[in-house]
Amino acid sequence: MVIAPLIPGHPTALGPLIKEALRNHPGLRSARLSVGAAREAPSRLGALPDPVFGIALQNIRTDEPALNSSPMSAIQIGLTQTFPFPGKLSRREAVARAQARIVDKRLAMSSVEVVLAVRRAYWSLRFAESAERITTESESVLNAIANAIHARFGVGQGAQQDALQSEVAHSTLRTTLQKRRQAVRSARRALNASVGRLPVANVSASTAPTAGEVRLDRRALVRAARRKNPVVALRAAQVAAARSSVDEARHDRWPDFQVGASYRFRQAAPGDMSQGADMFGLSFAVTLPVWMNAKQSSRVRESHAWLGAARADSVDATLDVLSSLEQWLDTVERLNRQLKLYEVELLPEADQALDASIGDYQFGKVEVVSVLKNWEMQLQSKLQYAALLSEREIALAEIDAITNKRLP
After folding, report:
1. Which residues contact 50 (CB under 8 A, 6 or more apart)?
2. pLDDT tens digits, one per residue of 45-61
3. Gap between the Cα atoms of 339 and 384, Å rounded
């Protein structure tokens, strides 16, 4: 069975993909539009209510509908303007600005989440490509083992079962290669989706994982998480907005005022001592908060409750962020130790064990099963090493997201 080679993708570094995602991701475009909408609210809520213009016919007789049929008949036009108590509008505007800052923080959090998704998908693709390459390279090692088997078989020292076991290993490897290549295709689609591209875009991860030990300053990262974490910042903005709402609700207990002006058009009528002179009027009204306990005071209590909930959410978010950070830091330390073990011991020992077993087989000291076992051990060691490298990069991406470091 012939396995078609995987078409190589266009090599792409991680940094440009992140910038492209921040620029083009549809989710971020939606979030930016939401920010624009939220920033329009303060001016609207800080403006006076629209004045009311009215026109009315007054005291028109039904038996003789005319302005001169009665001394009280008139056409009246009027204009009324409501003035909230001083300070109400400014506080409503402050609440709207605080709500807009929440939307800003959500945009920042969405940006961090998009970057994290790109980095996760990128390093998953990198591992899938590495696994496909390692498996392909391992096929040449298996071919060398098969040549050794055929060489012994040619001089009458090999067994038929050795050749059969080699063929089984080849068949198993071909099946594994099919899975590896499918994994690369799936990883490419996932990366394209995280960037905001069509799934058919052909991309290949060109950035190499960090080599050697990665040292992290735990205390500095904890401070950064407290200060810059997007979730913590969002919860802080929500607390500030709730505090503004409490202040606005308290001030809302004061009455509003209404000022009006009217003008009456009249005509002279029998018995009209004013001879049909036009008239004007002024009015002033004030709202009476007679239901304050059921309305305004209840709203103050409601706002206090939301403020308490926001503060509790803020504390909970901070604890969750710090706990998550500690776990990822521990993960990086574990991966550092595991990678060093592979680099210093496991990978060199797997190579040596395979080379020694091939040599021993050629001299008839070991069975072919031992050679194939060492070949499998070498393959799995390389795959596991590549997996650990990608896993550490993903862990570092998680730490960067927690501390709000967007670019690699």
Report:
1. none
2. 999 999 999 999 888 88
3. 9
**CB of 128 closer than 8 Å to CB of 78:** no
SS3 string, the chain, reads CCCCCCCCCEEECHHHHHHHHHHHCHHHHHHHHHHHHHHHHHHHHCCCCCCEEEEEEECCCCCCCCHHHCCCCEEEEEEEEEECCCCHHHHHHHHHHHHHHHHHHHHHHHHHHHHHHHHHHHHHHHHHHHHHHHHHHHHHHHHHHHHHHHHHHHCCCCCHHHHHHHHHHHHHHHHHHHHHHHHHHHHHHHHHHHHCCCCCCCEEECCCCCCCCCCCCHHHHHHHHHHHCHHHHHHHHHHHHHHHHHHHHHHCCCCCEEEEEEEEECCCCCCCCCCCCCEEEEEEEECCCCCCCCCHHHHHHHHHHHHHHHHHHHHHHHHHHHHHHHHHHHHHHHHHHHHHHHHHHHHHHHHHHHHHHHHHHHCCCCCHHHHHHHHHHHHHHHHHHHHHHHHHHHHHHHHHHHCCCCCC
> Which distant-in-sequence residues (6+ apart) come within 8 Å of 7 by Cβ?
202
Of 121, 113, 47, give the one whose Cα is nearest residue 83: 47
Instruction: Tell me the average pLDDT of the chain.
Output: 89
The CA distance from 135 to 141, in Å, is 10
Q: Supply the pTM of this predicted model.
A: 0.85
Among the ranges given (177-191, 256-270, 355-369, 386-400), the one the predictor scored with the smallest mean pLDDT: 355-369
d(CA 396, CA 321): 15
Q: What contacts 341, CB < 8 A, 6 or more positions away?
A: none
pLDDT tens by residue, 347-364: 999 999 988 988 887 777
* Residue partners of 147: CB distance under 8 A and separation at least 6: none
Nearest alpha carbon to residue 67 among 283, 260, 281, 279: 279
Which pLDDT score, from 0 to 100, does residue 2 have? 37
Question: Would you state the pLDDT for residue 389?
Answer: 96
Mean pLDDT of 111-137: 94
Question: Are β-strands 257-265 and 279-286 bridged in parallel, bridged antiparallel, or unpaired?
Answer: antiparallel
